[in-house]
Amino acid sequence: MTGIVGRLREAFRGGQRVDPDDLIARLDAVRRFLAAVDGHLPDERLVPAHTLVERAGTRLSLSRDHTVVALAGATGSGKSSLFNALARLELSPVGVRRPTTGVAHACVWGPLDGATRLLDWIGVLPRHRFIRESALDGDDESALHGLVLLDLPDFDSVQHAHRLEVDRLLGLVDLVIWVVDPQKYADRLVHTAYLREFHRHRDVTLVVLNQADRLPPAEVPRVLDDLCRLLDADGLTGVPLLATTAVDPAGTTELRASLEDTVAERQAVLRRLSGDIDTVVARLADLVGPEPASTRPDAAGARALTDALAGTAGVPAVATAVEQAYRHRAAGATGWPLVRSWRRLRPDPLRRLHLPGTGSPTDEPAEQPVAATSVPDPTAAQRSALGLAVRAVSEQAASDLPAPWPTAVTGAARSRLGDVPDALDQAVTGTDLGVPERPWWWRLVGGVQWLVTLAALGGLAWLLLGYALRVLGLPDPDEPMVGAVPLPTLLLVGGLLAGLLVAAVTRPVVGWAARRARHRAEGRLTAAVAGVGEEYVLTPVRAVLTAYADARDALRSAAGEK
Predict the structure, then answer these.
(1) What is the pLDDT of residue 350?
(2) Which InterPro entries match (predicted)?
(3) In the chain, what are the domain boundaries?
(4) Pairing of strands 205-209, 241-243
């Protein structure tokens, strides 16, 4: 009984004051949340947040000097009679046939012009708008100036359109007065479908037990106590609860005083929007979880992705071709001049792949690079390895994220896979493979080979000349001697042996340099395909992780957390 008396004394006490700047900051946070998750989360989960932003922006742009209060109740609860009693005029139809109220009626205290745009937005037809302003009232109604009182249709009407209208209007008004009667105050529909849904709007909710005159005076406290228990179960602990009657002018005194306090505070609209934000944030809370460990994919996963891309792009085959091309070109530049032309009959390994490297030897015509390479197509195993690497990156990146963010991460990781083959081909084609055109030591060795070859040819020519003279019976010219060996013979044999010796010494050097060129080309190609993985896989994944972090921070701000 003490609790009921306390509620009756409090009537409709105001809740915690809402700072307009804080409210606008929270709405901006909801907007930032929606911007962050756009394209990443299912649209159906975001409908309440979009609706809130639209409604809140419109409501705040309309009259801040008016407080929209709705009387909501079931059939026969007497809300239309209560509406007329508060207005002290017969404005809303009251009758025996149910439902009586099919559309919303509005009564405005003060000039109607200031509330016209507001009522247009709410959707009350002009013929159902009334102004509570009369010279005969004097200042009797001045305390309610700024009040817009709505009489809503019955939410349990047999006509489904009435309930839809009630649901629409309940999302627009600033404060709701739930009207129940002694016969149906415990009705499951009003508690499960409506009152429990308003547990985050306690500051803008009032419950009245109407038609209290139908109860014996001794039964009123008992019914109020039972109704209070039901409200506590609905999560509406502390909501003001009043007993009213429309047949006695004194039966609405406390309710009218509560409305006067509400109008004077000018807080109802802010509290309603604050409650709407709380409701939306609670519905979105499961979309964010703990702070992500990082907004970047794991380094090990990125390396595995690069390795898979390298296999798909044919980097090992290209690196092998670079080594073979180096050996081929070095042999052509440092080999025995008389057999160099034979090597030109063998195609350059990089030419076969349409990969010219950085240039071509001066004794070979340069070729223009083509748009596509002839690198072997990836095998089924390589394609499978790439798919597994992409999956591993997305799963690792989304391991700390709540649903449905992992789906968004996976979708982002795979969103551009169709463009990867062409991007890899372009990356390989555009990479400077580092194959030298003609290093200085190639020219040096080539010059030495020419010298010893010319010496051998000179010795051979000398010997052939002496042989020809002897065949013709001519005097044999004296041949200079080097020790016991004739000079022509020394030149021929020495030139041949020197050429073989230069080739033997050069071969391991060429092999070492070719392997080094291969490693260098492999590193550059790996860096190039890593760039493809960064652009086409990791960057989209990172964008989702950043969006999650932004959405999480925005939702915390919308919830009022610092």
Answers:
(1) 77
(2) GTP-bd, GTPase_Era-like, P-loop_NTPase
(3) 2-287, 299-558
(4) parallel
Residues of the chain with pLDDT under 50: 1-14, 95-99, 358-371
Q: Residue 471 belongs to what H/E stretch?
A: helix 440-471
Q: pTM, whole model, 2 decimals?
A: 0.78
**How do residues 213-226 score in pLDDT, each as one tens digit?**
999 999 999 999 99
Three-state DSSP string of 255-281: HHHHHHHHHHHCCHHHHHHHHHHHHHH
- Using the 8-state DSSP alphabet, how is residue 132 labeled? E
Number of H helices, E strands in the chain: 20, 9
Q: pLDDT of 329-341, one tens digit each? A: 877 777 777 666 6
Residue 331: count other Cβ atoms within 10 Å of its Cβ: 19
Cα distance between residue 522 and residue 211, in whole Å: 88
Q: Give the fold, CATH level 3, of 2-287.
A: Rossmann fold (3.40.50)
Return d(Cα 190, Cα 227) in angstroms, integer: 12
Helix 405-414 to helix 539-558 angle (10° resolution) is 150
HEC readout, 135-192: HHHCCCCHHHCCEEEEECCCCCCCCHHHHHHHHHHHCCCCEEEEEECCCCCCCHHHHH
Instruction: Compute the distance between CA of residue 287 and CA of residue 42 in angstroms, rounded to an integer.
Output: 11
What whole-number distance in Å separates Cα of residue 80 and Cα of residue 71? Answer: 8
How many Cβ atoms from other residues are within 10 Å of residue 346's Cβ?
Answer: 10
Residue among 536, 557, 499 nearest 418 (CA): 536
Tens-digit pLDDT profile for residues 92-130? 666 444 445 678 999 999 877 778 999 999 999 999 998
